[in-house]
Every structure is written in structure tokens, then in C-alpha cells.
């Protein structure tokens, strides 16, 4: 007869190492402006999917796209100077 053994101890033994490190959290925090700008662009794209685009929609998309570009440029500049992770 084969016994079924739980592996709970082996799974939870490594739990502390599964958490993000402080450096990883800092890197995420540094990328938040880019993430937020990309979410705003995605929202603008979703809004225009189910209807005919108007001039307001086109402006909203352009504005959101330029925010993404600005946020990426700012993040690249910070990474180049060593101020961000």
C-alpha cells in the first residue's frame, strides 16, 4: 500500500524568498509613471473600440500616446543617470 504524503512543509519552507526584494519594489515604483501612462492609453483605446471615432477620441488617443512617450523618455533619462533602478 502506498501512502500519500503531504508536501506542505516543503512548499511553505521557501515562502520568504518568494516575496519581492526591496530592489525589485524600487524598480516597480520607478516604472509606475510608465505603467500608469500605458493604462491610460489602453483605456483610451478601449473607449474608441465600440463606436465611431470623433475628434475628441482622436485627441484623447494622441494625448495618451504622448504621455506614454514622455513617461518612457523620463524613465530612460533617470536610468541613464543612475537615479532609478
Keywords for this structure?
single chain, 85 residues, mainly alpha, 71% helix, flat, DUF6284
In short:
With 85 residues, this protein is mainly α. 71% of the residues lie in helices and 0% in strands. It has one domain.
Give the N-terminus to C-terminus distance in angstroms. Answer: 55 Å
- State the oligomer: single chain
The overall number of domains is: 1
Mean pLDDT: 84
Low-confidence stretches: none
Helix and strand string, N-terminal first?
HHH
Structural class: mainly alpha
If helices are DSSP runs of H or I spanning 4 or more residues, what is the number of helices? 3
The percentage helix is over 70%
> What is the CA-atom radius of gyration, in angstroms?
22 Å
Pfam family, one: DUF6284
InterPro entries: DUF6284 (IPR046251)
Amino acid at each position: 500500500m502506498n501512502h500519500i504524503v503531504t508536501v506542505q512543509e516543503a512548499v511553505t519552507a521557501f515562502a520568504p524568498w518568494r516575496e519581492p526584494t526591496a530592489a525589485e519594489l524600487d524598480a516597480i515604483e520607478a516604472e509606475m509613471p510608465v505603467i500608469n501612462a500605458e493604462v491610460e492609453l489602453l483605456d483610451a483605446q478601449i473607449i474608441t473600440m465600440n463606436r465611431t471615432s470623433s475628434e475628441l477620441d482622436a485627441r484623447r488617443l494622441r494625448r495618451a500616446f504622448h504621455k506614454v512617450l514622455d513617461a518612457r523618455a523620463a524613465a530612460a533619462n533617470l536610468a541613464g543617470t543612475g537615479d532609478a533602478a
